[in-house]
Amino acid sequence: MSGIIINDAIVLVSTIQDHARRQSIAASAVAGARDRLRPILLTTLTTVLGLAPLMYESSRQALFLKPTVVTLVYGLSVGFFAVLLLVPALLMIQSDLSRGVGTLRKVLVGRRFNHRFRSAVAGIVVAVLALNTAILGPWVVTGNAVVPLELWGAKWVTFSAGAASLVWAVTLTLLLIALFAATSGILIQRSRQ
């Protein structure tokens, strides 16, 4: 079952990449899924329909094979939709992320922004990593979040995962607002010069 699904995904990715040489990634994802729909559907249907009689057989010998048949039938049915929907979507997401990372790399390495902007971005990245380590690290390892509140006179405080995720989300939002403010300030200062 996994071999069929993986093979379908590999051939679909190859088809999408062939189309991507001539057109955008979104159009190539649609064209690749359209081109591979019939072969993937026929592969799935022949296997599922070939195993269908075993699903409804009631003899003792068939009862031994029924769990395997049910697993294969439902696995291939779900895999059919996963290959045709998730693989093109993930390829488009990958393309968008690679463009964004490339642009960010040009901004951070290029000469357009000064040292203060790079320092602000590096500080925000370090703060986000520290936030993830401090709040999400213990939550992932132990199931409870331990946050150091000694700065406000409290000892180590343990609270629920929901509260930890709320603290994480609020702090992350504040850090992103700080990054936006730093970027805006630098750009406004630059436009005045």
Short description:
It holds the Pfam family ACR_tran. 83% of the residues lie in helices and 3% in strands.
What would you note in describing this structure?
This protein has 193 residues and is mainly alpha-helical. The chain folds into 2 domains: 2-107, Multidrug efflux transporter AcrB transmembrane fold (Up-down Bundle), CATH 1.20.1640.10; 113-192, no CATH class. 83% of the residues lie in helices and 3% in strands. It has 5 helices and 2 strands; from the N terminus they run H-H-H-H-E-E-H. The protein has helices at residues 2-20, 25-55, 60-109, 115-142, 161-192; strands spanning 145-147, 157-159. A two-stranded antiparallel ribbon has the order 1-2. Helix 1 packs antiparallel against helix 2 (25-55) and helix 4 (115-142) packs antiparallel against helix 5. The longest helix has 50 residues, at 60-109. The model has no long low-confidence stretch (mean pLDDT 81). The chain crosses the membrane at residues 40-56, 68-91, 120-141, 161-188. Pfam families: ACR_tran.
